[in-house]
Amino acid sequence: MATLPLDHALAGTASVAADLPTGEALAEIAVAFLDAGMVRASAHLFSMAADAGADAGFTDAGRQRAIQIGTTDVAVTERLVQDGALMIPSAERRDDGTPRFFLPIDASIAGQPHVLHVIRAELDGDGTDAELRNFLAAFLQPGDLLVDCDPGFGLASLSAATMPEVAPTVIARAADADHATFLEQCAAVNATADMVIVPPAGDSPSSLASLLQRHQATQAKRLVIHAGSADDLAAMHAELVAALHDHRCAAVAWTLGSDVASSAVAELLESRGGRHFVVATDADGVLLVPEGEVQGSSLIVTIPAHGMAARQAA
User: Fold this and answer.
1) DSSP state string for 45-100
2) How far apart are CA 151 and CA 153, in angstroms?
3) 131: burial class by Cβ within 10 Å (0-12, 13-18, 19+)?
4) Are the C-beta atoms of 148 and 157 separated by less than 8 Å?
5) If pLDDT is split at 50, 70 and 90, which confidence band does 86 have?
6) Residue 206 burial (C-beta neighbours within 10 Å; 0-12, 13-18, 19+)
7) Taking the model in full, what pTM does it have?
8) Hey, what long-range contacts does 70-77 have (CB within 8 A, 24 or more apart)?
9) Rounded-to-integer distance, Cα 95 and Cα 136, Å
10) How far apart are CA 42 and CA 172, in angstroms?
11) Is the pLDDT of residue 3 over 60?
């Protein structure tokens, strides 16, 4: 039986779609390679697609994405284990695709649900405490001090301490001695000289008032305070009011908790002149909008009266 060239043999088949232009086809194949984890080959294919006439913006973005994934993989592999801890790369990346910082997690606790949640959020999502980190990235300025009263795994503190060009000072308050040790390891692993870990005072975390008396605070141009969850702030109400009246206080960020606790904090700070905002994003980036205009936000950013007056004057 005689054979026909493939294109001729299929010419009469109604189910065959029209040929893609070579450039578009190569770009589609490059995406498939990227999805399959073959990042170096994908970068090469994106270049071939561009040479064949595919959209330059799409192919350049794809190539850069492939290169950054490869760079990140190399950087993480080189530091995967250090001092017995897994090095989890941050959700934030430098321009070259490498992680801005690493989170050291002891392998023996990696299976704990809250630890797995943090790891997955860093690797697959926007990162743990994404609203807070986005706010800090948009709001902090050179010369600022972030006072993190509830650092948790330290991700927001590390994110702030490693901000390129801004380089604010960070004071992170540890809940107990073990927490202080962990946060100190985080700071040491990432060589964040301007991240200060404050251990507990006796059996309790250091007070906000004592944190604001440290020399790092007295020398700061502006203070940005992350207070923590509304459910944990009852004992800090007086300190938060005092901080709100400090002329250097630019913002107090706190997280919604129970309705009763959240209302108490909101009403207290508003009665002292604070205005409440939430973090939103648009085409221009991160911005603060009045509370109530955006649904689903858990982070509240309270701007003191003097801060509102300065913004209105500007």
Assistant:
1) HHHHHHHTT--HHHHHHHHHHHHHHHHHHHHHHHTSEETTEEEEEPS-B-TTS-BS
2) 6
3) buried
4) yes
5) very high
6) middle
7) 0.82
8) 70/39, 70/40, 70/43, 70/97, 71/96, 71/97, 71/98, 72/97, 72/98, 72/99, 73/39, 75/99
9) 19
10) 42
11) no
Q: pLDDT tens digit string along 123-156? A: 887 899 999 999 999 999 999 999 999 999 999 9
Which two three-digit tokens encode residue 81? 């284990």
CB 20 within 8 A of CB 40: no
Which pLDDT score, from 0 to 100, does residue 294 have?
Answer: 78
Beta-bridge partner residues of 118: none
Here the contacts of 199-207 (C-beta below 8 Å, separation 24 or greater) are 199/174, 200/174, 200/175, 200/176, 205/149, 205/173, 205/174, 205/175, 205/176, 206/173, 207/239
The number of residues making up the chain comes to 314
State which amino acid sits at residue 65. Answer: R
